[in-house]
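Internal tracking record. Fields below are filled automatically when a chain is submitted to the structure queue. Please do not edit lines marked as system-generated. If the sequence contains nonstandard residues, flag them in the REMARKS field before resubmitting.
Queue: standard
Priority: normal
Entity type: single polypeptide chain
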Amino acid sequence: MNIRLSDSFTYKKLIRFTLPSIVMMVFTSVYSVVDGLFVSNVLGKTPFAAVNLVFPFTMMLAAVGFMIGTGGTALVSKKLGEGDEDTARRYFTMFVVFTLLLGLIVSAAAFILMRPICILMGATAEMLEDCVIYGRVLAVFNSAFMLQVLFHSFCVAAERPNVGLFATIAAGLMNMLLDFLFIAVFKWGIAGAGAATGISQLVGAVIPLLYFTKKGRAQLWFTKTRLEVKPLLQACANGVSEFLSNIANSVSGMAYNLQLLKFAGEDGVAAYGVLMYVNFIFISIFIGYSVGSAPVIGFHYGAKNRPELKSLLAKSAVLIGAVGIVMTALALSLSRPLASVFVGYDADLMALTRHAFVLFAFSFLFVGFNIFISAFFTALNNGLVSGAVSFLRTLVFQLLAVTLLPIFLGTDGIWLAAVAAELAALLSGAAFLIANRRKYGYI
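SYSTEM-GENERATED OUTPUT FOLLOWS
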């Protein structure tokens, strides 16, 4: 039996509805991690460090897809909640077309400017060529990646989260197969790693693109549309937090890499790469839950169902808190095997990575709440508050922590920076929730 956005959600129903989005995001993270495993174990730690240096920039390129996906979904879900399905479908089509066209422009610019960008990010002479090759290959497929992340949200709004899950699994399996073929068998090196990722992103974009071409399969399908500035700006305003989050995460990632090059050299960048790969998997659970629950929140906001909003917030807090505790315990207990899988070939690098992970692990106690709070306000069509929460968390607190803590704690300060930043973000997020409680009636 299909779960509808208009339903009243128990814990069981909420988990069932968000589970495809959670699995989708986890699987996306896992197949990204496979790139790192192949590059590190087959090509070595210098190409691995190069991939980790470029990766934050590639995520920055996809930021518009996240912004339009989350912000557009909030607007479309609200229109569905108001019963205006024709407008919802017209907006949906417009968002997809706009993202594709903008993606082509961004891709071309990134390809041309990749070398100076890599130099600006601190690439050493040994890493530079690998950075440029990997970055340019991914830039070619950037439009597909933007569409893939856009459809993550819209598949849920269309009450077809399994379509997004199927597309992600297909893309992930393709990426794993091509990583093996391109890197281990054909020996295409770093270019093969980029091509494997890019082709998989194309698969992840094309499957939902084809699905929504047929009328009546879901609440949403492609229809005649035109460029409308007001809803486009509204979607950008709603999703500005996700845009800022991706841009800020990329900037923060670059800052971490620069600090690590200064305090720990190339090994520090490689160790940070391992942390980020594992971090992607862990926080993808929170991101998936937020993506899956946001259309529900947006629908009930549009329907003016305040008791359900209150229930959704309370249940989400319980679920996120429980998962955060479990994640922290897992991260602490699995630090050695996780480090071994990525960099077991280098004893010193493995010891550094394991030590870093033990300190970094405590950030999982707080990060889930911060991701959800930002997504919650996006779903309420309050891009200003959502953007503020995201901006403070991913840029201000991260940059302050990674800049100041190493002065007193050395390299350990870099590993603890995420913990300090997430704790500060949780306190500011709680303040925003309290300040807006009467406006939305969720407390």
